[in-house]
Amino acid sequence: MALPWLVLLLALPIFFLGVFVWAVFEHFLTTDVPATLQHPAKLRFLHCIFLYLITLGNIFEKLGICSMPKFIRFLHDSVRIKKDPELVVTDLRFGTIPVRLFQPKAASSRPRRGIIFYHGGGTVFGSLDCYHGLCNYLARETDSVLLMIGYRKVPDHHSPALFQDCMNASIHFLKALETYGVDPSRVVVCGDSVGGAVVAAITQALVGRSDLPQIRAQVLIYPFVQAFCLQLPSYQQNQNVPFLSRKFLVTSVCNYLAIDLSWRDAILNGTCVPPDVWRKYEKWLSPDNIPKKFKNRGYQPWSPGPFNEAAYLEAKHMLDVENSPLIADDEVIAQLPESFLVSCENDILRDDSLLYKKRLEDQGVRVTWYHLEDGFHGSVIFFDKKALFFPCSLKIVNAVVSYVKGI
Q1: pLDDT band of 160, cuts 50, 70, 90
Q2: How far is residue 238's CA from residue 36's CA, in Å, rounded to a whole number?
Q3: Residues with catalytic annotation?
Q4: Segments making up each domain of the chain, as ranges
Q5: pLDDT at residue 5 tops 90
Q6: Fewest CB atoms within 10 Å of the CB: 6, 59, 340, 358?
Q7: Overall fold of domain 85-226+322-406
């Protein structure tokens, strides 16, 4: 009876080692690390670990143990959270939606600025615990009351769960600002990656709501604001750069929007978008709107393939304004609050920021743009990770802090 257990104990280390070796090979065969990135060896190591954990998660999912997203979330939520003596941190529920409130302990002579934060993670990763350090820092350094909103994720929940949860929790908070000591004239919404997309979508949806305080400013950190064109210059140039490859982006979009993965190529090639829709929105989506200096490396002009009606019927909801806030009407864009946009040169989503920046500026919205030549997608989460720290991470966080303190 002991022999099978002995064999299993000997086989497990070999299994885990084999998976890690596979992840290392996958990294070096498929990943690009641009020369402008600082600490390339550290980035490579972290990306190998990232691929290793995703591969393990996929194996566990196929074995019926647990889904890959839940496995990753279990790991990053196991990190110990440090208490900050300057803040009171409270876990609440707005209905069924988990939120975390950060409030400075020090007395204030007037109501404080409020920040509503939507975390990133592609609806796959990320959580209140994962982003605790970042939100704690933002609340403390800006002397603000910060509400971080949790939301339902894949594989158990799909569109429009993310938008609905964030919208409902935001409205609940906006209606109760006095309860939390927040100045209704100084509310900022902030988010990174898909959280940045939520910032754009919710700020647009709240335009014209006379029953709620107006949003004072929006902060979008490398946001995903359109699902139409995945062949923009940055999507070509950075398609294999950590930590968001084009393949992983398309897979995440399909999973969240409940689109079968067999339609990935149609989405990449743009054949799921009807010609008349392309013509309608080309003025906002065209690579011609990207400054020339961003098209100097590795970009090939592109046009969509022949229209595939079956692909459109399967994927048409990704063209809705809630999922592609870049295409909102001019009348809505013109009423948006002043904006702070962060983009990273080595990020597949760089051009989403550039296109949204132009849309806002064309409609007279004041935009502050912060671009990092050494930045990469997901870098903000490493700002307080000590040995895993990257200079660009702290640059982003401090730029956001400086901007918010001016509100």
Answers
A1: very high
A2: 12
A3: 193, 347, 377
A4: 2-76, 85-226+322-406
A5: no
A6: 6
A7: Rossmann fold (3.40.50)
